Amino acid sequence: MKLQEIKNRCGLKNHFYEINPQRINWESEQSAVFFNEKHAKKQLFLSYISCLPCLKSHIWLTTSGRNYQKWVALSKKALLTSAEAVNKHLHITAEDRWGLSLPLFHVGGLSILARSYLSGSAYFLYHKKWQAKEFVLFLKHYKITISSLVPTQVYDLVKAGLNSPPSVRAIVVGGGHLTDSLYKSARNLGWPVLPSYGLTECGSQVATANLSSLDSVEYPEMKILSHVKVKIVKKEIAIQSDSLLSGFLPVLDSIEKSEKKSYSMLFQEGKKQGWYFTGDQGLIRENILQIDHISIHQIKILGEKVNFKNLENELMNILLKTSLKGRYFLLPVPHEREGFQIALITDTFDRKIENVIREFNQKVSPFERILQFYLVPFLPLTGILKISQKELLKKLCF
Fold this sequence. Notes:
Elements: H1 3-10, E1 17-19, E2 31-34, H2 42-49, E3 58-64, E4 69-75, H3 76-90, E5 97-100, H4 107-119, E6 122-125, H5 132-142, E7 146-149, H6 151-159, E8 170-173, H7 180-188, E9 193-199, E10 204-208, E11 222-224, E12 228-233, E13 236-241, E14 247-250, H8 257-263, E15 276-285, E16 288-291, H9 293-296, E17 298-301, E18 304-307, H10 308-319, E19 328-335, E20 339-346, H11 353-363, E21 370-375, H12 389-395
Parallel strand pairs: 1-2, 2-3, 5-6, 5-7, 7-8, 8-9, 20-21
Antiparallel strand pairs: 3-4, 4-14, 9-10, 10-11, 11-16, 12-13, 13-15, 15-16, 17-18, 19-20
Helix pairs in contact: 3-4, 10-11
């Protein structure tokens, strides 16, 4: 089903939902739906749009839940609440110029429109396919002062040995963990990167490094922003904020015509007594949020706990010393006898990778060694250049 057919059939063109608009009227009751039109589930997403509850002044985004894909409904007020806090934290003024390289169907890109609207600052879209050199030229051409990136993009900038243009005063990095070694390598090239923790369900950032952290090259702490309250319940991070989602709907694998009318009945608020439980683990110390990446990346091999974060750091340290091109990352793959084995995945083959594997295996415990290697020329990527592990495991027939 095509977008225009959806709009006409649902009366969305003149009524409720705009689909993937380029601009947003933050003061109107018009609502919008954003999703990745290149996503493998595009047709599935389209089939659901007519079933979404009619919510005024809302924006729907698709995101990966803990165990499934889902639609998240964020009110414009919620997104503006988040934007106001971020603008305050980053000292955004009308003189700033945003470089928008993340897609609008991702909250990291969408939130920049809200920040620009509130501060009166300009934003410029990076339209081209992602390439580190092209992005730096884009920053220079538009004299960009601030932007948001994901760790993969930072890695590409570092591997290309590209220095930050002098106009850039801050780069917020979210959508994944920025490793210590990658952070320091980026800072050595002059990139003013600020690690952050955020999520779609909270309208973007929850905790972000201070601008003052750029006075040092030490990995910074992330300060909890002013618009959120955070508590830890049985190690899980819970959030209370006016920027939280209104609710969500699961994306089912299929839906019958007879079930479409009742689909909106699956809408859930997502909050328990005003708190949203993230599924992530962490600690709070004096308004500083520490994410427990060990618990997120911890697996067992032969009954031994493996800190996957440490393995990723080790691989990053080795790769940054090489001239290898392409993408290389670790993936725990299921193994009948051992539980998991560590595999190295790449989209570009180079014989020098043998040296990387040899050095890596010498630095880790025997059960942590790379035992499998896969060349995957066309990696399944999400809209923000993250590897879709679920799709990759399917591609590798696991």
